[in-house]
Automatic annotation (TrEMBL):
InterPro entries: Lambda_DNA-bd_dom_sf. It comes from Larkinella knui. Keywords: Coiled coil. The lineage of its organism: Bacteria, Pseudomonadati, Bacteroidota, Cytophagia, Cytophagales. GO terms for molecular function: DNA binding. SUPFAM superfamilies: lambda repressor-like DNA-binding domains. Residues 95-122 form a coiled coil. This is XRE family transcriptional regulator.
Length: 141
């Protein structure tokens, strides 16, 4: 999943506007963030660093590579406990990622099945061609 999509998911999960999100990163306007969201720009290292500083609960692995949960698991103290809503959001995103991976695996499986059928078909043609040559030799003799 492209980083722009993950960034949009993060903004949605934080329940902030793009402009508010950009301002948390020290931007006066939201243009840079809009360009990243629409795939016109890739975020620079400094921008990613600002996101992680502004929102310390965001999981860097998820932001950079799409791996793991959107938010880091916090120590289970009364002040730092993850809310049920956060857990549900994390589960929804994990399910979304798993569905994407399953779809990709299904596509790969279908392509491999097609290639295998083509190879088997070619092998049958070669076998039939050999049988045909043998029968032609036996009728000549």
């Amino acid at each position: 999943m492209p980083i722009g999509v993950r960034l949009q998911q993060l903004i949605d999960a934080l329940n902030v506007s793009v402009l508010e999100f950009a301002r948390q990163l020290g931007e006066k306007r939201g243009e840079k963030v809009y360009h990243i969201l629409h795939g016109r720009l890739k975020p620079r290292y400094e921008t990613l660093q600002k996101i992680l500083l502004a929102y310390p609960t965001v999981n860097a692995d998820w932001l950079l590579r799409g791996e793991g949960l959107m938010f880091r698991t916090l120590p289970q103290t009364p002040l730092a406990a993850i809310t049920l809503d956060d857990r549900l959001r994390n589960m929804e995103f994990l399910l979304f990622q798993l569905n994407e991976r399953v779809a990709l695996l299904q596509q790969t499986n279908d392509l491999l099945r097609q290639e295998l059928e083509e190879v088997v078909g070619q092998k049958k043609v070669i076998s039939l061609s050999r049988v045909s040559r043998r029968s032609d030799r036996s009728t000549e003799a």
